[in-house]
Amino acid sequence: MDMAPNAVDDMYNGCKEEMKTRVEKEFLPNEKSTNSQFRQAWEEAEQVYNTKWKRETVMAKEQFMAIYVYNFGRRQICQDIKTAIQTQHCNYKTTFSYHSMTFFLTDALQSLNAQGPAKGRCFVVYRRVDQYFSQSVLGKEIRFGYFTATTLRGYNAMEKKGGKSCFKIETCHGADISMFGNPDTEALIPPYEVFNVTAIKRRCQEPSLDCDVFYELKSTRTLSNLNCALFS
């Protein structure tokens, strides 16, 4: 765990309307035409929106579709998007091929975070994974560096995800997306949110813990190294 220096972390702070226009006119058509898996996932999400989505939502259509693709798309396309966001900082202005997803996901989380009963409030989410991370990060700042799936209902809701590492996370920039009905992804954390590691516990010392290693994280700030980079 570190500050994810290779992440695509654009917040579009100060260029959101310009980016929306560029996504709609340039990036989305190009990305659909050059990536058949993405095109199929996007078309499926649009069909779901048009035929099944009956709930009132503060999200625009494209925001809904981006979250749907990221949550319910075929595993390969979801993994490709996640990996690209985690690793392609240096390619952002050249060959990065998921501008549409990154923009609409960011826009959706910012819209959801700014409205509703949780407006302006931080809230606690949980995550568990079958993977070990550094245990030398107590008191340090970290970012996940991608749109990170969490649950609102505690670690047991993600029991099938493994028992190596558990996270209790106070997020101030993530958003509740539980209306989508995916128990593994009830809230998403954006790649630009920074957390302080406030506690690390180990099951060998505390047998009652749900995972071998337990991390507690508290949101401290945002860091967007690529903010509006396409317009600089």
UniProtKB/TrEMBL annotation:
Protein name: NAD(P)(+)--arginine ADP-ribosyltransferase
One MF annotation (Gene Ontology) recorded for this entry: NAD+-protein-arginine ADP-ribosyltransferase activity
PANTHER family, alphabetized: ADP-RIBOSYLTRANSFERASE (PTHR10339), NAD(P)(+)--ARGININE ADP-RIBOSYLTRANSFERASE (PTHR10339:SF27)
PROSITE patterns per UniProt: TR_MART
Domain of life: Eukaryota
Family as reported in the entry's similarity comment: Belongs to the Arg-specific ADP-ribosyltransferase family.
The reaction(s) this protein catalyses: L-arginyl-[protein] + NAD(+) = N(omega)-(ADP-D-ribosyl)-L-arginyl-[protein] + nicotinamide + H(+)
Pfam families in the record: ART
Organism: Tetraodon nigroviridis
Keyword Nucleotidyltransferase recorded: yes
Key words, A-Z: Disulfide bond, Glycosyltransferase, NAD, NADP, Nucleotidyltransferase, Signal, Transferase
